[in-house]
Amino acid sequence: MKHILVLAAIATFMVVAFAQNNSAHFASKIFHDEPTLAGTWVLQPVLASDTAAGKLPTITFNLASKKFSGNTGCNDMSGHFFTKGDSLSFDEHIIVTRKACEGYNEKAFIDNLGKTTRFEIVDGVLQLMDDQTILSKRTRKPDTTMKNKA
Questions:
Q1: Beta partners for 133?
Q2: What burial letters (b/e) apply to 5-32, b meaning 16+ CB within 10 Å?
Q3: Is 107 buried (19+), middle (13-18) or exposed (0-12) by CB count in 10 A?
Q4: Which of 5, 14, 44, 87 is deepest in the core (most CB within 10 A)?
Q5: Mind listing the pLDDT tens digit of every residue in the chain (150 residues)?
């Protein structure tokens, strides 16, 4: 009888410890910021042509509507995207305004969106990828509403 009580106490202790560990992990997922695709991302330029039009390209993801909008660095763009886990693809029908921008290769920019098959967020940097190849890197749009008060 004594052994059964000891085993029951050990089993109860293990169940409680497991439950606390899992609830702590669950709570950390809820209450701590985890990387999310949602929001506005700004291109980290690599080539001089990335900023030839005078603007940094941006993209804003709305997860609820599965729509994106942004700027190619020259023209405004919008469309739909699809995600499942880390997979990401853009609808081939991307709407783009038609301003002419000297020295800017907008077609290559749009083509890269079409090649995207997945994404990763590493150290706060969004990487749009084609399988294992990084197509572009983006960071969160800086908050320009805050003013330096010196």
A1: 130
A2: eeeeeeeeeeeeeeeeeeeeeeeeeeee
A3: exposed
A4: 44
A5: 555 554 555 555 454 444 444 443 333 333 345 679 999 999 988 876 666 667 889 999 999 999 999 999 889 999 999 999 999 999 999 999 998 887 777 888 899 999 999 999 999 999 999 999 999 999 997 655 444 433
